[in-house]
Amino acid sequence: MEKLYPEIKTALPGPKGQKIIDKDLAYSSPSYIKAYNLVVSHGKGPWVYDMDGNRFLDFMAGIAVNSTGYSHPKVVDAIKDAADKFLHICGTDFFYPSMSDICERLANFVPGMGKKKVFLSNSGGEAVEGAIKLARYHTKRSNLISFKGSFHGRTTGCVALTTSKTKYRAHFGALMPGVYHTDFCDPYRDPEETEKFSPAINKLNELFETITSPKEVAAIFVEPILGEGGYITPTKFFMKELRRICDEHGIMLVFDEVQSGNGRTGYMFASEMHGVYPDIFTTAKGMASGMPLGAIVAKEEVMTWGRGTHGSTYGGNPLACAASLATYDIIEPLLPTILELGKYMMGRLNDLKAKYHVIGDVRGSGFMVGVEFVDPTTLAPASEFMEEFEQLGFTKGVLFLGCGTSTIRLSPPLIVTQHEIDIMIDTMEACFKELMPKYKY
């Protein structure tokens, strides 16, 4: 197979791309972010081509969505085959094979949870909204807890849980009541977070003592790896303590695996990485290689809501279900390779860290890795450096994306090889060499 490399032929954006950008800015909502001026024409594997023929290596997978890369033939064939049969019928009201098959597939993941039931949605945000309803319905309690820096979606309920950026919440209030936030475990920023002690757990206990009784809490929502908040990996001690506390007080432990699930960490779901299992987990993003599909997966004894209490017109669309079944066929055998290549990538990143002290921390598992930039003297977040780094990578043909205050997330398609990892690392080094003199780090 031919080894490809980034290729930039025009100014970015090129003339064809600029016309589309002008039209988009004239008619689309100003709420869209548009990280950089990429106008996609098509993609193949981990490679993206813009309207002017420039080729980019994607190391953010459309924000962790394109788990099998672009236009994987097995996924495309599955979608075409499903479309030839019928486009849709509402899975809330009727039956069809692909919906039953994907529910069975999801229920057989994460064996540590025991027997499970599945509800299908269109997105991660919808899945989290449904998980809020399920936790409240099952426990007959109302209060919810989530963590500072978290991102759970943009719907009204999800925004109430989310605290990664104030702009996600500003002027949308009053938000859903009964939601409380506490500190997340960040071993880099708080070295006291260890496998034997957690200041974050102490903060949670203080919340129970001063703000809400644990007997009024329906659920604790947590990302097994903080996503938009900076790709922060908590300690296993922290996760185990959450499980213990929830068991003690009858609280539902809900894992938001929208970004960390579906093989991204080298485990099918990050709960297996921690060895801690929730009562409910949500997933979406990479589960259908870019088709709109999300899911709530819950212990059978927890999914107690009755007929008609929750539904979705399009959740579990047959095309999305077909894409998801093909996606899991592709990524399940790749899990050991993802773990090994993740270790290789971390090794090369730590080599860069030894050379460029603007890298404060390298963390993660598999293909969910964060590289945090800091002022080497003060360890303050180097936000401007990160933003320039992201843009500079784009001009060099590698798609990076920031998260948190000053972290570059590395979340490539799960089908990348060592060849693409080496290209990414070499591009990072070129960016460091160009930016370091400017910032005098």
Explain how this protein is built:
The chain is α/β, with parallel strands linked by helices. It has two domains: 15-72 and 334-439, Aspartate Aminotransferase, domain 1 (Alpha-Beta Complex); 89-316, Aspartate Aminotransferase, domain 2 (3-Layer(aba) Sandwich). 37% of the residues lie in helices and 16% in strands. It has 13 helices and 15 strands. The protein has helices at 15-27, 61-64, 73-85, 97-107, 124-139, 156-161, 199-210, 236-249, 270-274, 318-331, 335-355, 383-395, 418-439, and strands at residues 40-44, 47-50, 55-58, 116-121, 143-147, 179-182, 217-222, 252-256, 280-283, 294-299, 359-365, 368-373, 398-399, 401-403, 407-410. Strands 4-10-9-8-7-5-6 form a seven-stranded mixed β-sheet, with helices on both faces. It has a four-stranded mixed β-sheet with strand order 1-2-3-13. The chain has a four-stranded antiparallel β-sheet with strand order 11-12-15-14, with helices on one face. It is globular, with a radius of gyration of 22 Å.
Mean pLDDT across all residues, rounded?
97
Order the strands across the largest sheet as they lie in space: 4-10-9-8-7-5-6
What can be said about the biggest beta sheet? 7 strands, mixed
* Helical content (DSSP H or I, runs of 4+): 25-40%
Number of helices: 13
Number of strands: 15
Spatial separation of the terminal alpha carbons: 41 Å
β-sheet strand percentage = 15-25%
Classify the fold: give the CATH topology of the largest domain: Aspartate Aminotransferase, domain 2
Encode the helix/strand succession as letters: HEEEHHHEHEHEHEHEHEEHHEEHEEEH
Number of domains: 2
Q: What CATH first level of the largest domain would be assigned?
A: Alpha Beta
Radius of gyration: 22 Å
Question: Which blocks of ≥5 consecutive residues have pLDDT under 50?
Answer: none
Category by helix and strand content: alpha/beta
Q: How would the global form be characterised?
A: globular
Proper CATH architecture of the largest domain: 3-Layer(aba) Sandwich
CATH superfamily of the largest domain: Type I PLP-dependent aspartate aminotransferase-like (Major domain)
